[in-house]
Amino acid sequence: MSIGLLVGAVSRTQQAATSVANLIILPMAFLGGAFIPLDFAPSWIQKVSYVMPLRYLVVGVQNVMARGLGPASALPAIAILLGFTAVLTGIAVRVFRWDEI
Fold this sequence. Notes:
Layout: H1 2-10, H2 14-31, H3 43-48, H4 53-66, H5 75-95
């Protein structure tokens, strides 16, 4: 949601916001391991995935749902996602401006 807030803060129109969101979300889904397991990805994709918030969501969900680890195994991923949320929301608040249409 914080990515959406940031995109909405910098976009002037709804069409621009949709385009920018797609440019962010789709590559992040591929590079974050949502579509293919990162174990099979090249090493550069594995390294890039560490800056993608979706990677931590995928890892947390996989730990609990697929790997059979307890809910506590998702806590590090949740903490990292909360950090991403705080930073991106802070940037969105700083960038957002009310404009007359």
